[in-house]
Amino acid sequence: MTDDAPSLTIDRRPDGAAAVALRGQWTAQQLGQRRVWRSVRRALRAAPAEATWDVRGAPALDHLGALLLWQHWGRRWPQAVQTSDAQHAVLERVTDAPAQAAAPRRTSLAAQFDALGAGVLAALAQLRDFIALLGQLALDGLAVLLVPRKMPWRDFSGSLFRIGAQALPITALVGFLIGVVLAYLMSQVLRQFGAETFIVNILGLALVRELGPLLGAVLVAGRSGSSITAQIGVMRVTEELDAMRVMGIPIGLRLVLPRALALGIAMPLIAVWTTLAALLGGMIAADLTLGITSGYFLQELPKAVPVANLWLACGKAAAFGVAIALIGCHYGLRVKPNTESLGQGTTSSVVTAITTVILIDALFAVLFKSVGLGI
């Protein structure tokens, strides 16, 4: 090490007390060298914090050196410390700074087990709230059936327009492109086996039964599910939900039921619309790549895909819509009155909604595996 390298000396007195004197430059330039840093930390571990400290032997002391000393002293002044005015000013600035976050320590197995338990309890609490929201939706729906004038029809029609009509362009575009891609890729394989005509069977069954409803649901979950969560979350931030409770306005009837009913009605229509756009794209691609004319495609499609698949797709899409609406409302009602929670709730709503849509689709595939397939 050079003469400027930071160091310290420890003198033991006959009475057992220790005196620590600093030497060298205790600056970031010197302490930034790994070898010097390790040497200083090793020397500090041997120096008792309750000793008499003489800092005047260090002609240069910046914020990093002062912070290193302050942390070694246990974030409090030693009983005896000698400093120059400049050094004392630097140490004073360090003492006035907020405490640094403690370095992450390795958690024990018991702490990890406790964290797992807390996560399970939080998940069960979310499940409990969601079941309560589902039950409230059923009660509100029954009340509207008995007294239809209780239904906020204006909110329902507005949600139906935003969720259904305004989503038609993007769902048609995505469906059309997916149909083109699928037809083009499958044509490369079918041509090798001379089975070009089976593209109608593959495209029809895949798009009508699975991809049409699933694509529409994923797009609606990202577009409308996040919008529902954001709308209700902003009402939480602006304390509109609290005002509704004070005024006695039922939140479930005014906020949850119109959106769930609108999505439950709009989703089957969006699924059919997306499927038609995808079939159109697939029909055009099949004509260009395999020479399968649109007339032949439309003639063979009803034979290849029984109508039961369409009814199954519509029922599945309705379940998708209600699930997306409930998840969006659930996370919107859980938003805390701050913008950070609003962003986290919107993100969680979209992720959960898409995951739930895929799980429901898998459940329908297992339960109705013999419907429309001739099995």
Spatial strand order of the main sheet: 1-2-4-6
Question: What is the rounded Rg?
Answer: 34 Å
User: What is the molecular shape?
Assistant: elongated
Beta-strand percent range:
5-15%
Main sheet? 4 strands, mixed
**Secondary-structure element order, N to C:** EEEHHEEHEHHHHHHHHHH
> How does the helix and strand content classify structurally?
mainly alpha
Number of strands: 6
| Helicity, as a percent range | over 70%
State the low-pLDDT regions, or none. none
* Mean pLDDT across every amino acid position: 84
Number of continuous helical runs: 13
End-to-end CA span: 83 Å
Task: Give a verbal description of the structure.
This protein is mainly alpha-helical and 375 residues long. Helix content is 71%, strand content 6%. It is built from 13 helices and 6 strands. It has helices at 28-31, 34-46, 63-72, 85-96, 109-146, 153-163, 168-193, 199-237, 240-247, 251-290, 294-304, 307-333, 339-367; strands spanning 7-12, 18-23, 25-26, 52-54, 60-61, 80-82. The chain has a 4-stranded mixed β-sheet, with helices on one face. A two-stranded parallel ribbon has the order 3-5. Helix 8 (199-237) runs antiparallel to helix 10 and helix 8 (199-237) packs parallel to helix 12 (307-333). The radius of gyration is 34 Å and the shape is elongated. The model has no long low-confidence stretch (mean pLDDT 84).
